[in-house]
Amino acid sequence: MDREVSSQSYSKNRLGRWALIMVPYAWLLLFFLAPFVIVFKISLSEVVVAIPPYKPVIDWAQGLAGFVEAAQQWSLDNYIWLTEDAIYLNAYLSSLQIAFIATVITLLVGYPIAYGMARAPKAWQPTLLMLIILPFWTSFLIRVYAWIGILKNEGLLNQFLMMLGIIDDPLVILNTNAAVYIGIVYSYLPFMVLPLYSSLEKMDSSLIEAAEDLGCPPMQAFWKVTIPLSLPGIIAGCFLVFIPAVGEFVIPDLLGGSETLMIGKTLWVEFFSNRDWPVASAVAVVLLLILVIPIVLFQRQQEKQKEAQ
Amino acid sequence: MAKKPIGPVRRAFAPWEDPSAIPFIEFRNVTKRFGDFVAVDNLSLSIYEREFHALLGGSGCGKTTMMRMLAGFETPTEGQIFLDGQDLAGIPPYRRPVNMMFQSYALFPHMTVEANIAFGLKQDGMPAAEISSRVQEMLRLVKLEQFAKRKPHQLSGGQRQRVALARSLAKRPKVLLLDEPMAALDKKLREETQLELMTLQEDLRMTFLIVTHDQEEAMTVADRISVMDRGHIRQVATPGEIYEMPNSRFVAEFIGDINLFHGKVTQKQSEDAQLYCDLTDSTINIQGAGDVRVGDEVTFAIRPEKVRISLDKPAESNANVIQAEVWDIAYMGDVSIYHIKLAEDEFIRSVVANTTRLVERPITWDDKIWLSWDRDAGVILTN
């Protein structure tokens, strides 16, 4: 009797669990997979001057036959084109490079901040956390625009430095890669600080004392204990900065110059200036494939972390 | 108070009795303040080589601060700490020849058991072959040989505790500091570990300093106990002396159970005194009263197990005898605690060992009984 009740409630429970799991899957299906399929389909098409600016267009009125007819015209030409023009490969490599350097800088800037927060008195920590999240309350675009005001030749930074007499002529920062790095580091800093803080904050401070007790000077204790124990935070933070930074468009567009080559910008130019949707789509698909690698690595690392706990 | 040896002293190790002995660890007028809070107040303490010393007290009594000052994690506000003749002032924790076993164990979670134990040795630049043999030796010592490759999270609480112990012993420190080492263990494991710790300390011939709030633990493991209270040491003595001859009401009440009588000294002849308690309208004869004077208001303290109860008036003339009534009985299995009413709101406890399987108690509720104790069974507390 008891058993029946419990097995019944178990199956009910399982149903509930399925329903719960299906919600995010349905979401992903609708808002991620479906658009991706559409983009992928466009990437197999050919550019034309028309609305929409590609062909073939599937004629759903003909049913399956319309689909088959369109499918027969699909080709990988656009992907081959990406390998033929060096600009795409250069843009991908340059994006990866900029994202990588920016991630390292963000880590170097973010680690001391997170460390300071984790070591701050417990009563201050919520406030400090709030301050880290505070920039999100303003539009990302506006914050990047604000950096133009700071970095331009007659901007706040140059005026300030000239007022102090440190420099005589304004520094040219805006429209250079330096401005792109500043923009990325600034924009993605919270994504670095938060996982670092959460891993540092969990750390038992007696571990450092134990290391010192066993003969470790503070700096060595930092390298041998603090850094290894915050590694999950370092990895998470780096992925969270690196992945979106690779495809970043707004920052290189607003702060970067003509020398700044990033795939996000290339994609934008293909899509809006050249109105070449198929090539733009192919660029996007390849970008996605490139980013799948770090995302998979990240996931695997997270799982390993979970197992270790 | 004159020190009287309690029973035959079997323990030969008692350097604190020897005035020529040089202390191994010496706290000299040490004060530690945290802002306005005085954690340790002008405190002096000598601990001798190979001694197992316990700092015992409730939370906030300053015992942990004492240990942390010795380890170097806190700096004394005033005073000096000497270890083996060396002033420790200005020496950072990583250069002090002491090692600490942390209450949380503080095992490095990213390292194996082996690597944890080897950590301090590597830090000292010991050759790899020597490290490996020392680690093996330590693993054997704590019986964890087969767990060398495990990570701390794959061990039980008791095993982790052993790793922490092995790690803190690996460098063969001059002093091993144990911060509440058994707080996280269950009672049975705790008792076993206490005995092991004692054996270990004797075998290794090392100086151990333990911080604990558990009086039984301190009594079990330590050669001497410092009873601490609000930054002061109330008494430093062997467990036997602390128990049988507490020097103050605080110590008497902190360690074990005790009956207290308030009274006035009515007679005094050499070491013998007579006390009159008005609450119970009784006279107590005391042998070994120390230096009290006639007319002093004092507290007489006697442990419950030293108070005998009987239905008939005891014959011995040497004892103190009071008639009273059984108020309540607490049966604990091994012993029974009798709560005996002397007068209105005046109770005394007597602990009686249950030496036979009692089907029916010879003495039970509301019985009129006789209390008796030897003249030298209790002590006079002057403060």
Low-confidence stretches of chain B: none
Q: Could you give the distance between the termini of chain B?
A: 12 Å
CA-to-CA gap between the ends of chain A?
39 Å
**What portion of residues of chain B is helical?**
10-25%
Average pLDDT over all residues of chain A: 90
- Side-by-side strand order of the widest sheet of chain B: 6-7-8-3-9-10
Give the rounded overall mean pLDDT of chain B: 89
Helix and strand element order of chain A: HEEHHHHHHHHHHHH
User: DSSP strand (E) fraction of chain B?
Assistant: 25-35%
Can you offer a commentary on this structure?
- The complex is a heterodimer of chains A (309) and B (383).
- In chain A, a hairpin with a 6-residue loop joins strand 1 and strand 2.
- By secondary structure, chain A is mostly helical.
- Chain A is built from 13 helices and 2 strands.
- Chain B is α+β, with helices and mostly antiparallel strands.
- Helix content of chain B is 22%, strand content 34%.
- In chain B, a hairpin with a 3-residue loop joins strand 16 and strand 17.
